[in-house]
Amino acid sequence: MPEIPGPITIPPDKAELAGRLSKVRALMEANKLDYYVSFDPVNIYYLTNFANNVHERPFILILPRKGTPTMLCPLLESSHVKTRALCDLEYVTYYEVPSPQGQNWFDVYKNLIDENARVGIESALPVGIANATPGKHVIEDIIDDVRLVKTAYEIGRTVHACSIINEGHRKLLEITRPGAMEVIIYGEVVRLMMGKMLMEIPTANLLASKFIGAVWPPSLSHDPHIVPTPFTAMEEGGPHVSIVTAQVDGYGVEVERTFFLGKVPEVSIKPFEVMMKARSRAYEMLKPGVVLEEIDGQVRQIISKAGYEKNILHRTGHGLGITGHEAPYVALGDSRRLVPGMLISIEPGIYLPGEGGYRHSDTVLITENGYARLTDAPDTLAELTIGL
Amino acid sequence: MPEIPGPITIPPDKAELAGRLSKVRALMEANKLDYYVSFDPVNIYYLTNFANNVHERPFILILPRKGTPTMLCPLLESSHVKTRALCDLEYVTYYEVPSPQGQNWFDVYKNLIDENARVGIESALPVGIANATPGKHVIEDIIDDVRLVKTAYEIGRTVHACSIINEGHRKLLEITRPGAMEVIIYGEVVRLMMGKMLMEIPTANLLASKFIGAVWPPSLSHDPHIVPTPFTAMEEGGPHVSIVTAQVDGYGVEVERTFFLGKVPEVSIKPFEVMMKARSRAYEMLKPGVVLEEIDGQVRQIISKAGYEKNILHRTGHGLGITGHEAPYVALGDSRRLVPGMLISIEPGIYLPGEGGYRHSDTVLITENGYARLTDAPDTLAELTIGL
User: Fewer CB within a 10 Å sphere, N or C end of chain B?
Assistant: First the structure.
């Protein structure tokens, strides 16, 4: 396996953000778009380094094909945007939601784009904002397309983010014992990861940071998206499934493991092995040029042949970047090919009601020759059977 | 002032949710809508009690004018929805994002609504989902309209949520001293509030719970929406402005105070008094029938007459409910009238660059005869000058 690149903890420089913008503009050119409008806070963060939560006061980033982009934002937030945005921006503000007649965001917005322009919009754009957008609209998720392949900077940030969840996951395995309550595990693991981030990135943007450290005990682990209560208790045996995810100052990563406390039930051995075999097959296939859905197809075939077709609840994996879930998808239906610089999770799962779930997940970088696993946790049944 | 209703900590019963749905259906009837489609997680939570974060796998709630509503959701999440939704629902699932051809969410979705139907959609609906919605679309935010006036149940939940932030704010004033770092104040106050919520509502939904306890010291308090760093330190003097907000198992509330550590700078006395005068005027006007923008107009007049017109950065207040910011708005441009059962913040502010900000905020219920303030914190300059 190739070497893992070094971690990066500094903010993006102007050249990094200008490089992202020029890729977006190349796609604007190809799609003959005069403007592109972005409302999705994730896309705005990607291009500007400014993070916000969507609320009733809209922030709209307007990219002309040439010249400085414009940020339309509430008066109240303009200095906040200025302290975080690290690219050149023109600022246009409106007073409030609502404002007196003629001073609302839509009144100001309509003057920022030429009525005859061809305007690209995101499929996530709210219809209320789309309707207030001048010009002829073309739905094209071009910022999302640029985000598919990561820059060296983004990869370095992700390597750093993985070092934080790797430590969180070690702590999680250390403190999870029969009877331990979810709220205690969560508190300890999250505090550790948050503390490490703040030591290493004192200027971290908390609006772009989030931590989860939780365990699905055997009574829940067959159901990966149910939410344990704070007082859910761990049990002897297993399968327990850990979920340690974070957005570390903007960069989303995950590591998950199936593990056992004290003993491994007889019925768990086969599904654990089948999951491991499907996972190995997925890793064997990881290299540039491979079609994503073919990986999922092979994984499904291995699991199905072992008799667990009905116990597949989800795709093999998903992209990661400035979110913890994004394109591309390691899934039937995604016919894109792997490219060096993509970041994906590999996490085939088998879910048996009444017994539990079997899934390991890692954050994986596609490299020139194959892949590099950026998360680091034990993965064999022996290592994941914790002595009491 | 009228008595404050008692706190409620139990989940909504079927009658509560059925009552909300029938109000939505009355508006569907009035707007001649055959269906209403909701994607906004807040509106889905309001009608079903199921909370989710929007991600690439859509959840869509389809309300026919009669009969049981349908929840379209990913296979992986259906048991999660079922454990939280407390109303009758039909479930339709799709496999994944993406799925093999013909099995995607939009393939399944298009069969759930009649092609000739008149379909109400939210202005927040993403255009990609709007375009996949069959029928003739009418943008009408009718669930948001129903949410304007709270039920007795919602008021009881809000009273409880306020008891939590009241305690958080007392702790904040107790521990905020010159030199104290944001991260410590935040950690202590959030831990206290989270712990109290879990003691009082052990089944609280953590996806619908969120806590903030922070202080803007004088170097930042002139800029209410800037975000302090974790290592921002408190200072002697002031004005400091506290922000304690929470979403307590679904119910959003806030309390904020302008306070001083040890001494009050001479320059702070006038703006503090003007803020208090504007705030008193707002409270004097609070009763059913009053037009919201008239309150903001009077507040602006008092502040402007004192010479601070340019130092107004925001409206007098906003609605609260299952979010911490929603309609109606105590703002120029909102011509609606106060109605008993509305919940609003009252928080006129004056912001002086180089000196600091002046704002108190409370969560306030409109009653038959006036109002009841549900948050409880000291508000005079004497009480808010903390001895060191």
Answer: C
Ramachandran class of A341: left when φ > 0, alpha when ψ lies in -120 to 50, beta otherwise = left
Residue type at A265? P
Closest CA of chain A from B183, distance in Å = 10
Across the beta sheet with A371-373, the strand order is A326-330, A317-319, A343-346, A362-366, A371-373
For residue A346 the two structure tokens come to 């590999």
Per-residue pLDDT tens digits for B118-147: 999 999 999 999 999 999 999 999 999 999
Do B14-146 and B152-386 agree at the fold level? Answer: no
Placement of tokens 């806030």 in the chain: B254
How many CB atoms lie under 10 A from the CB of residue B65?
A: 15
Residues 149-168 of A with CB under 8 A from B: none
The partner residues of A136 in beta bridges, in order of sequence, read A118
* A182-200 vs A152-175: helix crossing angle, rounded to 10: 140
Superfamily of structural domain B152-386: Creatinase/methionine aminopeptidase superfamily (3.90.230.10)
So what's the pLDDT on residue B54? Answer: 85
For the domain made up of A14-145, the CATH class stated in words is: alpha beta
Mean pLDDT of chain A: 97
Domain positions in chain A:
14-145, 152-386
pLDDT tens across B295-341, in order?
999 999 999 999 999 999 999 999 999 999 999 999 999 999 999 99
DSSP code of residue B63? E
Complex ipTM: 0.95
CATH 1.20.58.1480 matches B14-146:
no
Rounded to whole angstroms, the Cα distance separating A122 from B126 reads 9
Q: B3 CA to chain A: closest CA distance, Å?
A: 32
Bridge partner list, B260? B385
